[in-house]
Write a structure and sequence with these properties.
The protein is about 50% helix and about 20% strand. The chain is built from 6 helices and 5 strands. The protein has a 5-stranded parallel β-sheet, sandwiched between helices. The longest helix is centred in the middle third of the chain and has 22 residues, at about 60-80.
């Protein structure tokens, strides 16, 4: 190993308090390493999640969810003085889209919140962080909020 250069950091967010905490961590890493920071949010594609429902205005719902995500990310950027970051919002299956984005954009490290879900919720839905850890060939740093 000739050394590790971390030039691009991806921080996926679901806009929860835990992922906001992970964004702060990622900002510190990026600042210390001189790396470019990408904030990534994935809106669940309703049609693929629940199947086709003729009366469901899925495209309109996704557009609205993306607009709301942009507003929330801008609030977070301003609150924590994020400088030059690239914000990316897509729709689809979050773990798959995160890994695809990381591969396509030569991301060196993924930093994301670990929610610590347990019981039925974890059994039913799993953890996006857990799935990214399994799918990604990139290093993933899972940040758990301190209690």
């Amino acid at each position: 190993m000739n050394g590790i250069a971390i030039k691009k950091i991806l921080v996926p967010t679901d806009l929860s308090q835990n992922s906001e905490y992970a964004m702060q961590y990622a900002k510190e890493f990026a600042d210390k390493l001189g790396a470019k920071l990408y904030i990534y949010h994935c809106v669940t594609d309703l049609q693929s999640a629940i199947g086709y429902v003729p009366s469901l205005p899925a495209e309109e719902i996704i557009r609205t969810m993306k607009e709301e995500a942009i507003k929330e990310i801008e609030h977070i950027r301003n609150r924590y003085n994020f400088g030059d970051v690239e914000v990316v919002i897509e729709s689809g299956n979050a773990p798959k889209k995160i890994v695809e984005f990381a591969d396509k954009n030569n991301i060196d490290m993924i930093i994301m919140g670990a929610h610590g879900k347990s019981g039925l919720e974890r059994f039913m839905f799993g953890s996006v962080t857990e799935k990214v850890l399994r799918l990604s060939s990139k290093p993933v740093l899972a940040i758990k909020m301190s209690s």
